[in-house]
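INTERNAL TRANSFER SHEET
From: sequence group
To: structure group
Subject: Magnesium chelatase

Please process the attached sequence and return the structure record in the designated field. Keep the field labels unchanged so the import script can parse them.
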Amino acid sequence: MTAVQGQVRARTLGELLQTPEYAGRTPFDGRARLVHDEVRENLTRKLKSGEELFPGVIGYDETVIPQLTNALLARQNFILLGLRGQAKSRILRAITGLLDEVVPVIDGVDMPDDPLNPIGAEGRHLLEVHGMDLPIRWLPRDARYVEKLATPDVTVADLIGDVDPIKAARLGTSLGDTRSMHFGLLPRANRGIFAVNELADLAPKVQVALFNILQEGDVQIKGYPIRLELDVMLVFSANPEDYTARGKIVTPLKDRIGSEIRTHYPTDVRQGMEITAQEAVRDTGVLVPDFMAELIEEIAFQAREDGRVDKMSGVSQRLPISLMEVASANAERRSLMQGDRPVVRVSDVYAGLPAITGKMELEYEGELKGADTVARDVIRKAAGAVYARHLASADTRDLEKWFEDGNVFRFPQAGDAASAMKSTRQVPGLTDLAATVAGSSDDAVRAAAAEFILEGLYGRKKLSRAEETYAAPEPETRQQRGGRWN
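Return from structure group:
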């Protein structure tokens, strides 16, 4: 016996059969515990104990997770269908948490094989030669997950395997013997989970090979029929756009997939904020006030609704995550240069435009206006929406009149936050309203709140904006406000 992760683990088949879990078992006893059964048993235990099934997966408690749980309880292979940035890959990887901590496999073979019920020719041969002295090793759950991003150039050899003439000559076997095969990714995922991302991108013949493995347990390689009754959970992801844009899932394979589970974007801003806070890399001490975090998240929601953004491509949840990181970095840069506390402001969001434009696929109208223009307009709409949720009843008549009297205000970007707040006193009511929004006596947070208020009024078409300068709304906008926008 040998110690592994604080426990004593068997090193041979004989030692394994002496453990309580395997007592009374014999080779080829037909009592193999399949991966689907293993996942089902561990899932059942977690459901009974009330444990979290998929840590880190947010927003799917009432939609995706119940459907996924049903598929796993039913021992089905499944496909996650959804647009980019909907946590499909995260969900697939999280299923490894439903596997046993470790499982025994035959040592010295390429394909992980059950020492009691080997399916590979090499494993069966080693069992015959060594008997109870068959060497085994313990495979951790993380090593039992194999993932492949599908592309049109992926071949059957990549996924299933290929005939190796040199190996056949060395072993003295025919080319049709499974011992002469060089295994691909799928056989190497035996006793585990094999995930294919963007399934529709696979060539039809490769998809048929996957179907043959699942349905019949055999496949033809270079004209030789090879039988591989793999013990593997096969899971997929795909983007609905791919069905028409780049390829499709062949009918026999689609029919063999047990469940088609649709993913979605966060249903509300707070849910999105929770995801962004979890995923964004923010370990630099930069403060993101709640109203700014909401603004950053609202930008993604507004982009998904904008008619100039391609709905079929979607707007990934990576947009607010990347924007949060870039805006925080810009706040940190400003802090390093000015010595002030790093707090994210609206100007930092505008500095994060590259994180927005690269995450949106534009329609024809959007292409005409340009990604930068569309992104700026989305920020404006987002600021107006967040302002309306929290400050729609705020009395800003004196502030608006000050601008309508011809005054302009350029929000200070240089200097410390105290100086910025001092300059805001010239705008009637802005300092007091900023203190209310900030909920803090910190000048850096109040400065961020003041700039947010001005941006929100701009988003509500009560002000106009040019770079960091705010002024009265344009005449046509003022007329519209007095009519149907009032």
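Handover comment: The mean pLDDT is 87. The two ends are 79 Å apart (CA to CA).
Transfer complete.
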